[in-house]
Specification:
mainly alpha, Growth Hormone, Chain: A, about 400 residues, single chain
Length: about 400
């Protein structure tokens, strides 16, 4: 890559990473749960379910962005996604006290979540194509700030919501305005490699066979990657939204809840940066296997974890979840090529969506009473992660055989 193109690639990476910082508000929903419940007098389970809707629409946005990237400029997709995220938050702030609980699923969940997915996939795909020889580092940086968002916005949003000056609705409006300004300022910098005439650059993909999404759906390796993603994320999806509620059950002061959310956010961010770099050292499939094993052990340890050990276990699960966001785009490109990475990674992310939809419901059935402990839940989640480790081992063995 020439120096001029390298500089342009750095601009794309920096602008995309800053935008990811704002888009990562998707992980801050836990601090809104109780304030929203109180403000609208909705059932807390309905409020919590908003994040499930948002994550599903996040994946649908990723799928859509993958298809659009061959037809629409990357910067326009990012602009659309950022505006939708801001619009979703602002619309949420305008809901009336008499609004039904499902209305927030539309504003924050569907509109906001879909917008985040559009921008997220486009930013990652652009980063990988600008740095084809340093994909691990570029992807890691790009998704690191997405996870780091909760470290900044969780305490900020909490303080604003609890203050007499702002409150819930004004906090949502201010955050929406900040996201909109950031999007308008930076979207134009996110673009795919171009030639001197401003047309999409011709990239040499000849070093590896390039598969379309239709082709990968016929590959065994796709389903091994798909289910590994699905099983890896289950623990985080079920544990993270309830961190503030789980803390007192494990010997942690209830007032430490927001700090625990920040710790999980830091671990999540660290995993996004460290795991792709680990993949450069031990192999990307090996990195996936490692974080699946750590997730299984960390989740199982929650059965008896108290105090500091509980915090460490939560951090381990969050670290591995964050790592999945950095390593799976790379594994997808390793197996199926870089040319159609946007669409192909979108297909893999359907496993993410299935995890959001299925496991909270399945594991939720294990509660037999209001006072039931979470031991069985933790063991089932640990078993799910262990199953993902088995599938990844099969993926590794298949790769060695094919070589």
């Amino acid at each position: 890559m020439s120096e001029t193109k390298s500089n342009q690639g750095v601009k794309v990476l920096i602008a995309g990473s800053i935008l990811q910082l704002f888009l990562g508000v998707i992980y801050v929903w836990s601090v809104f749960v109780n304030p929203v419940k109180t403000a609208f007098n909705w059932d807390v389970n309905d409020v919590k379910f908003t994040v499930n809707i948002m994550l599903c629409c996040f994946v649908l946005g990723i799928l859509t962005a993958g298809k659009l990237q061959t037809k629409v400029k990357a910067s326009y997709i990012v602009l659309t996604g950022g505006v939708m995220m801001a619009a979703g938050m602002f619309a949420t702030s305008m809901l009336s006290a008499s609004a039904p609980s499902w209305s927030i699923w539309i504003t924050y969940g569907i509109i906001g979540g879909f917008g985040v997915g559009l921008a997220y996939n486009t930013i990652i795909s652009s980063a990988q194509k600008w740095f084809p020889k340093k994909r691990g580092l570029a992807t890691g940086i790009s998704v690191f700030t997405f996870g780091f968002s909760s470290v900044i916005f969780a305490p900020l949003a909490t303080q604003m919501i609890e203050s007499e000056t702002f409150g819930l609705k004004l906090t949502l409006q201010i955050l929406a305005a900040a996201f909109l300004v950031a999007t308008l300022a930076l979207f134009a910098f996110v673009k795919l490699p171009e030639n001197a005439a401003g047309s999409p650059a011709v990239i040499d993909y000849s070093a590896q066979e390039q598969y379309t999404t239709g082709q990968i759906l016929k590959k065994v390796d796709f389903y091994l990657i798909f289910f590994a993603m699905m099983f890896l994320t289950a623990s985080f999806f079920i544990i993270n939204p309830s961190l503030k509620l789980l803390a007192p059950m494990h010997g942690i002061d209830a007032n430490f809840g927001v700090t625990l959310v920040m710790i999980a956010g830091l671990a999540n961010s660290a995993g996004r940066l460290v795991v792709p770099l680990l993949g450069e050292k031990i192999g990307r499939r090996g990195a996936v296997l490692t974080i699946l094993i750590i997730t299984a052990l960390g989740t199982a340890s929650l059965c008896m974890a108290e105090g500091a050990l509980f915090i460490v276990a939560i951090a381990a699960v969050a670290f591995c979840y964050g790592g999945s966001s950095g390593i799976f785009p790379l594994v997808t490109a390793d197996h199926f090529g870089l040319k159609n990475i946007g669409a192909n990674y979108g297909a893999v992310m359907v496993g993410f969506m299935m995890s959001v939809l299925l496991f909270p419901y399945i594991v939720g059935q294990l509660d037999t009473s209001a006072g039931a402990d979470n031991t069985m839940k933790y063991m089932v989640l640990a078993g799910i992660a262990a199953a993902g480790a088995v599938l990844t081992t099969v993926l590794i063995l298949r790769a060695r055989k094919n070589k």
